[in-house]
Design a protein that fits this description.
Rossmann fold, alpha/beta, single chain, five-stranded parallel sheet
Length: 384
Amino acid sequence: MKVLGFEENELKKIGGIHTAREIQQQPDVWRKIYHQINERAQDIKEFIDVALNEVDDIVLSGAGTSAFVGDCLVSEFNKNFGYRTKAIPTTDIVTHPQNYFRRDRKVLLVSFARSGNSPESCATVDLAEQFAEKAYHLIITCNPEGSLVKSEKQHQYNIVLPEETNDVGLAMTSSFSGMLLAGLLISRITNINNEKKNVDVVIKYAQNILNNYVADIRKIANLDFNRAVFLGSGPLFGTSIESHLKLQELTDGAVFCKNESFLAFRHGPKAVIDEKTIVVFIMSNDSHSVKYEKDLIKTIKDEGVAKALVGISEGSISDLGLDLEITLSNENRIVDEPYLTLSHIIPSQILGVLKSISLGLKPDNPSVSGTISRVVQGVTIYKK
């Protein structure tokens, strides 16, 4: 059986079997997560209803990739719950808790964590208890043995995702998309049955990428580039952040990556593009947003500086003349836009693994010096 175009034995020798499998398994994992959240929908809704009856703010938090889950979801929580929601990394909260929690305001803290053992994530739960008037805790994690699950705060609800999401590889793949889907479904928990059609479509999109585009992405990975830019707007801005980190960490920093929204990229950051830069356009299916995205793509193409241009889109973008067009459907809009945050991360995950292999690294543990680890080490938490 091949995984991302490689025989399993070959991937084992390379040191990439776990990460490759964790990328490829995502459609099946998403199906499990939908059923898990649907089965527990009533309990989750009751917890959310009690919390929202009291709280003033919702904070979506995590460290590193887990924080980017919140960036993808913040607009959904804002729209669907009608509360002021902010995505704030635990790494910000730990150093300045008084900036985010207030003793005259109650908070629902939604913690995203693969291991649940990150020092900052564990500290953030305690800081919410210390600095907010009252704190409710919704823990979404991939590890049933993590410290977050065992913290047992007074107002705490745990969601432990299927064991496959607890990635063995250094880079978070199934864990990122799994927690993202869980959060997206929770933001729509009142009408969870209506979400099955969206989940089914995005699973189909992911399978399309895995079945039909790996060889094309490999051609991009084998190009001589040392910079990459990922652009996404709205909920896809969070996907652009995670995309840039995936490629950068899987190549051990050999490829320096940047992300930005489409419009903001014009205001200075565009200077980063040179002849050894690839640009990946993570495109919306909102007709209004796409107009701005296409304008920028045409500008960058006309300038002719970048090594290669890649587009990820629900509908066809063949008119843009990109070096690689990853098209998920024959129609321009089928799935709700926030679900594209799931399908649109997969090409960047694949690109990261294939570029890592082309550089002679081990995707499961690409950090040659050992400075990057699966769970962050060396963080001392000081009392405030």
